[in-house]
From TrEMBL:
Superkingdom classification of source: Bacteria
Name the record gives this protein: DUF2029 domain-containing protein
Biased composition (Basic residues): 1-10
Keyword Glycoprotein tagged: no
Transmembrane segments: 61-82, 161-184, 196-221, 233-256, 276-297, 353-379, 416-440, 452-471, 483-506
Originating organism: Kineosporia babensis
Keyword RNA-binding in record: no
Location of region: Disordered: 1-35, 533-554
Keyword set, alphabetical order: Membrane, Transmembrane, Transmembrane helix
C-alpha cells in the first residue's frame, strides 16, 4: 500500500456501502462477507459457489447469518456426540474411554459422585468441598439439577444423563452463537469462529465449558447494547461456571481506568470516554455477582473462598500445564547407552533433562522467560511486516462512541490476549478449557488461518492426552512422556499464537489516524484502509489492481 494512493469510486445513490465493524455502519445496506475479505475463506469459497458478489445485500429473513450459523452449530455439536459414540454405546470405563478418546466428565462424575444412585447428595453437599462434584459452583448446580431429571434406576442412566446434558449444551451453544452474531452487527459472519470451530467437536462435551461460553457471549452482547449492569450479572455467572473468564472483567476495568481519555474520536475533546463508567460498572457487577453466588451456593459465610485459594496454592501441576514440563523433562531423559543419538542428546541437553541439575521451579521460570522473549520477537517482527491500519472516519458519518465498537475493537482483543496468558500460566489446563477462547476469537475477528493453526494444535493434544493417561495402565501401548511433551508444547504454542493475534488486532485498531502521501482521500466512499480488518491482508482487499479491475468492494 505504501507509495500508492487507492481511490474508490463514489457510490451511486442507493448502492451498498460496506463496513467491517459494528461501529462503522453507514446507511444500513451493506454486509461484510468473509468470502471476499478472509484469504483462507476466499480460497475455499468455490465449494459453495465462489466469493460473495458485489451486490450482495444484508439478509433479514430466515437465512440471515444468525439463523445459518445457529443451524450449523447444531451440526458441529452433533459431530461431537458422534465422536463420543463408542462410549455412549459401550459405557465410560477405564481405560477404554481413554483408548477411544471419548472420555467425558459428564457421565463419569455423574456415576462417581452418586448423583445417579439412590443416595443422591444434596445441593450443598454436591457443591461443597471436599467430597463434592469437583466442578465450579454454577456448573455443579446445572449438573445437580439435570441429574434430578434422570431415572437413577434405569441401567442406562449414565447415557441418558449424557444425552440430556448434550441437548442442553447444544441449546446453550445456539444462544451463544446468536448473541455473538448480534454483537458483531454487519460482521456477524465472524460468529462462525464459534459455531464451526473444530475444537467444539473434540472438547465440547468433555465438561460444562459451553455454559461459561454462553454466559460470556450474552454478557458482552448486553455490554455492547449499553446494558453494563446486566452484562456484569451475566459475566459474574460465567465466572461461577469457569473462573478463567474473570479476566474479561479485569481487562474491562483496566481499559476504562487506564486510557479511557484516549478513546475519544477527537484529540481536542477533553474528559473521559463515557464508556469508562459503563466498563467499571460491568467489572464491579461481575465481582459482586460472583461473590454473592458463592455465598448462596456454597456452605460457610465466605462461600469456601479460603478453601479455594488453599486448594489452588497447594495443588500440584495438572495435565496440560506449563508447570508440568519439568516433570516431563525428567521422565524424557534419553539413555546415553541406547544409541549414538541418545549419547548426543545427553551431551547437549543433559542439563535440561536432569531433574537434579535444575529444579522444577527454575526450569519453569526459564520456560516462561523463553516464551515471553519468543512472543516479543514474534510481535515485533509481525508488527513490522504488517503495519497497523488506521481507523479513519467516514465522510458524512457522525463520530461514534458506542459500546459495540469498544467491545469488538478494544475489549475482545485485549481479553483474548490476556486469557491466553492466563491459560498458558495455569497450574492445570484441561483440553476443554481452550473452548473459552472461542467467543473472544469470534468477536476479535481473527483470520481463519490463525484459528485453524490453533485448532490443529488442540486436536493433536486431544489425542495425545488420552493416550498418555492410558499409558498408566498399559505402558507398552500408551504415549511415552517425550511425545506427550512435544504435543503439550505444540498446544501451548497454539494458544500463544492466538494470544499474539489478539495483541496485534488491538494494536491495529488502536492506531491513531495519520496523514501521509499514501493516505486515501475521504470522498464519501469507503477506502481499502477504512474497511479492512486488522486481521486481514490489504493485498487481499486490493484484488487485481495491477490488471485495471475495479477496486470497489461494494
Amino acid at each position: 500500500m505504501t507509495g500508492r494512493r487507492v481511490r474508490q469510486p463514489r457510490p451511486k445513490p442507493g448502492s451498498p456501502r460496506w463496513s467491517q465493524t459494528p461501529a462503522e455502519t453507514d446507511d444500513g445496506e451493506g454486509v461484510y462477507s468473509p468470502t471476499r475479505l478472509d484469504p483462507l475463506v476466499r480460497s475455499a469459497s468455490p465449494v459453495i459457489g465462489g466469493p460473495a458478489g458485489r451486490r450482495l445485500a444484508s439478509s433479514t429473513g430466515i437465512w440471515s447469518a444468525a439463523t445459518v450459523l445457529v443451524l450449523l452449530s447444531a451440526v458441529v455439536f452433533g459431530l461431537g456426540i458422534v465422536q463420543k459414540q463408542h462410549c455412549r454405546a459401550s459405557g465410560w470405563s477405564t481405560p477404554d474411554h481413554f483408548w477411544h478418546a471419548c472420555y467425558s466428565d459428564i457421565p463419569v462424575v455423574f456415576a462417581s459422585s452418586g448423583l445417579g444412585g439412590p443416595d443422591r447428595p444434596g445441593l450443598s453437599e454436591a457443591l461443597g468441598s471436599p467430597g463434592g462434584l469437583g466442578q465450579p459452583p454454577l456448573a455443579g448446580l446445572l449438573m445437580w439439577v439435570t441429574s434430578g431429571l434422570v431415572d437413577s434406576s434405569d441401567p442406562g442412566a449414565n447415557r441418558s444423563f449424557f444425552d440430556l446434558t448434550a441437548l442442553l449444551l447444544a441449546a446453550m451453544l445456539a444462544v451463544a452463537v446468536a448473541a455473538v452474531t448480534f454483537t458483531l452487527g454487519r460482521r456477524g459472519w465472524d460468529a462462525a469462529h464459534l459455531a464451526l470451530s473444530p475444537v467444539l467437536i473434540t472438547a465440547g462435551l468433555i465438561s460444562y465449558q459451553v455454559l461459561a461460553i454462553v454466559l460470556v457471549a450474552l454478557a458482552l452482547f448486553a455490554l455492547s447494547r449499553n446494558r453494563a449492569l446486566a452484562g456484569g450479572l451475566l459475566l459474574g455467572l460465567g465466572v461461577a461456571a469457569a473462573p478463567q473468564v474473570a479476566v474479561i472483567a479485569i481487562v474491562a476495568g483496566v481499559l476504562a481506568l487506564w486510557r479511557s481519555g484516549t478513546y475519544l474520536d477527537h484529540p481536542s475533546e477533553t474528559g473521559r470516554d463515557p464508556r469508562a463508567l459503563a466498563a467499571v460498572t460491568f467489572a464491579g457487577t461481575t465481582v459482586i455477582t460472583w461473590l454473592v453466588l458463592r455465598v448462596l451456593l456454597l456452605p460457610g459465610l465466605t462461600g469456601q473462598f479460603g478453601d479455594m485459594l488453599d486448594s489452588w496454592r497447594g495443588g500440584a501441576p495438572g495435565y496440560g500445564s506449563l508447570w508440568l514440563i519439568p516433570q516431563l523433562l525428567g521422565a524424557s531423559e534419553p539413555d546415553p547407552a541406547s544409541s549414538w543419538a541418545g549419547r548426543l542428546a545427553q551431551l547437549l541437553f543433559g542439563w535440561m533433562f536432569s531433574a537434579n541439575a535444575l529444579g522444577g521451579g527454575a526450569t519453569s521460570a526459564l520456560v516462561v522467560i523463553a516464551l515471553f522473549v519468543l512472543g516479543g520477537l514474534l510481535l515485533r517482527l509481525t508488527v513490522v511486516r504488517v503495519p497497523p491500519l488506521s481507523a479513519l472516519p467516514v465522510a458524512g458519518q457522525p463520530d461514534t462512541t458506542n459500546m459495540a465498537e469498544w467491545v469488538t475493537r478494544r475489549l475482545a482483543p485485549a481479553s483474548l490476549a490476556t486469557l491466553a496468558v492466563v491459560l498458558l500460566t495455569a497450574k492445570s489446563l484441561p483440553a476443554q478449557t481452550s473452548l473459552l477462547l472461542l467467543p473472544l476469537i469470534a468477536l476479535s475477528g481473527l483470520r481463519w488461518r490463525d484459528h485453524l493453526i490453533w485448532a490443529g494444535t488442540e486436536a493433536v493434544y486431544f489425542v495425545g492426552i488420552w493416550l498418555y493417561i492410558a499409558a498408566e495402565t498399559a505402558p507398552d501401548r500408551g504415549l511415552p512422556s517425550q511425545f506427550y511433551l512435544i504435543m503439550l508444547l505444540a498446544r501451548l504454542a497454539g494458544i500463544a499464537w492466538v494470544g499474539l493475534q489478539g495483541v496485534l488486532i488491538y494494536r491495529a485498531t488502536y492506531a491513531p489516524p495519520t496523514a501521509g502521501p499514501d493516505q486515501p482521500d475521504v470522498t464519501g466512499a469507503l477506502s481499502i484502509r477504512e474497511i479492512s480488518s486488522p486481521g486481514l491482508d490489504e493485498g487481499t482487499l486490493l484484488g487485481d489492481r495491477d490488471t485495471g479491475a475495479p477496486q470497489s468492494l461494494g
